[in-house]
Amino acid sequence: MSINTPVLLLLDGEVPRESLLRKFATNASFIIATDGAAQIARKLSIELDVIIGDMDSLDEVSFEYFSKIKTSIISNPDQYSNDFEKALRYLIAERKTHSLVILGMHGKRTDHTLTNLSVLVRLRDCFESLVVIDDFQEHHLLTATYLSYIPTLPNHSQISLTPLPIAEGVTTHGLFYPITNRRMEFGIDEGLSNIITSHDEALITISGGALLISVAHSSDE
To answer: Are residues 144 and 107 in the same domain?
Structure first.
């Protein structure tokens, strides 16, 4: 995966292994964390530019540590948005962010994961490039604005397609189980563990809605 000087957003979910986290932190142009994720960054001595959230999860040690290194700590008590949405809206309004990598978006509580996916669908179109990373996969979201995705993975790599909640006109090329102009709906059908059979022809497109694409990390990650 190639992303030029992205912003890194660290959330308080299941954070990828330390080597992967440090890789993205080193390459990031700006690092923002929700209050619950700040402790993770402190323990790994990763400096943050901004901490944002309702501050219900920022422990005293982390608060003092980041205050001393002049990290901007932004308290947003709005209870009608979660900390993930607060962070995204800050990046949209204050940083005019175009490229974003997100770590720790899912895991721990299922309701948090589902809410984060809802927020992702709501705000995806505000970023030119957005990818969610975990220890096993990277996740891309197609929308009515971003209608296509070209996997840069070798043959036999796994790829899964999940509508959120509906994806119209789903069409694939270069996959073992072909899909042609199909309407996919959450709770009705999904495309779990398809296989890339033609690296040169692999392509997924939609005509509307939202489709989450989950692919295995490339070998260098």
So the answer is: no
Tokens 């309004």 locate to 93
Check which CATH number belongs to the domain holding 174 and give it: 2.60.120.320
**pLDDT tens sequence across 100-136:** 999 999 988 899 999 999 999 999 999 999 999 999 9
Whether residue 159 is found in the same domain as residue 126:
no
Q: What is the pLDDT of residues 81-93, one digit of tens each?
A: 999 999 999 999 9
Question: Which two three-digit tokens encode residue 217?
Answer: 């990390």
CA separation, residue 113 to residues 33, 84, 129 (Å): 17, 11, 21
Whole-model pTM: value is: 0.94
**70 assigned to some structural domain:** yes
Residues 66, 140: Cα–Cα separation, whole Å = 31
Condensed to tens digits (0 to 9), the pLDDT of residues 12-37 reads 999 889 999 999 999 999 999 999 99
